[in-house]
Amino acid sequence: MNKVRHVLGISGGKDSAALAIYLKNLYPLMDIEYYSSDTGKELDETYNLITNLQVYLGKSIEILKAAENSHEDPFDHFLSMYGGFLPSSNARWCTKKLKLEPFEKYVGNDPVVSYVGIRGDEDREGYISHKTSIQSIFPFRRNIWSEDVISKFLANDKIEENLTWLDAAGVGSRKNLFQETLLKPLSISYHEHQKLNQLLDIGVAETNQLIYSYLKTTDYPLGRDDSYFPLLQNEENLVRDDIFRILEESGVGVPAYYKKINFEVDGKTSSYARSRSGCYFCFYQQKIEWIWLYEQHPEMYRKAMTYEKDGYTWMQNESLEELITPDRMRQVKNDYAKKMEKVTSKQSNFLLDILDEEEGIGCASCFI
Ligand code: SF4
Asked: Which domain of life is it from (predicted)?
């Protein structure tokens, strides 16, 4: 059997970078491989972050490039293959070709535990590989396990078996509480997440140990790994502010595009930023982020414009050329400034709360 590999994908965004730092600080003995999928279209800030991170980790980050023998950037190579058809949320060939396929080639058929930086304040699962040899773990969440593991562990036909792990899980005086909860069958009115949360409320480390015991009976990579898995003891739940703190305290820093920049519109002052890493022309960005790109990185905006031809545009119903007419820019900025005024929490120096709400959508799930 191949050795189980532990990998962490660096997207160039804040969460995966903070996760790498967090795991290194807490569990320095874990042997983690770092990789990053380069589309060839990232902002300079992303490349700077990767450089800083390598210094901090004392390890190199393997850069995965799709179509590595092509004379073009990975994105341009596949764009030509797709006849200039720009990717969109409905046809996201870029994620598949530039991120997923290089990742699956990198890990091959090795059993792999992949650490994913989804935070405790996010409600999404991220990418779950169709390959059973890849298992995702979410160290920032109280529930570190992926949905598929939880579903199998909590299945009603596993109840009796799960009870047999209790003594080895070190549940001590809470044995009765665990027993009672484990014995409750799932039903229409008693869902998986309710049962899981009840178990976690009784004891996180003990619940982790129960799930780990179950995994030992399966082909999941962690079930086949004989080395000690320190995350079983981790009871933390990290949210957005923790991520910024980790990045700042480490000295790696927060990518500059998260920092708020003031702008004026019709006598009012508001501020904007970019909420995501990834390609500078990512179709998931909001209109105000496109305007940020136009005003902060005009050369990149112009490059993004050159991709819009033959009727293809990055946004539905509006081209980049139309977006930067003075009236339209004013309108977008005004709409955005109004939304911002309604946001009550304005504590973060780095990220606009409105943008952050959207951050988890789409684009982030292309970072595995
Ligand atoms: S960042 Fe956006 S454009 Fe780039 S690969 Fe991901 S989804 Fe596609």
From this structure: Bacteria
